[in-house]
Design brief:
- By secondary structure, the chain is of the alpha+beta class.
- It has a single domain, classed as Glutaredoxin.
- 46% of the residues lie in helices and 20% in strands.
- β3 and β4 form a beta hairpin.
- The N and C termini lie close together (6 Å).
């Protein structure tokens, strides 16, 4: 199974939703909190091509984007394939 990294914030409803979907798919993920961590948020923003919102998600070496993009992958049937590779 691919490594999954999710930058998130504790009270973000989109982060919670994305983590629920990943858990439902049986995916282990590494969560990196940006709460009160300006350097961590800056690193996330740099890696995400300037996007400052959370969540920001990577599956393996592939940058997925945020919750909406993760849900789009799920609806298209591509998420399971990405997680399995």
């Amino acid at each position: 199974m691919s490594d999954v990294i999710i930058y998130s914030s504790k009270y973000c409803p989109f982060c919670i939703r994305a983590k629920q979907l990943l858990a439902a798919k049986g995916a282990d993920y590494k969560e990196i909190s940006v709460d009160g961590q300006p350097k961590v948020r800056a690193e996330m923003t740099r890696l995400a091509g300037g996007r400052t919102s959370v969540p920001q998600i990577w599956i393996g070496d592939t940058y997925v984007g945020g919750c909406d993009e993760l849900m789009t992958l799920e609806r298209s049937g591509k998420l399971a394939k990405m997680l399995a590779s």
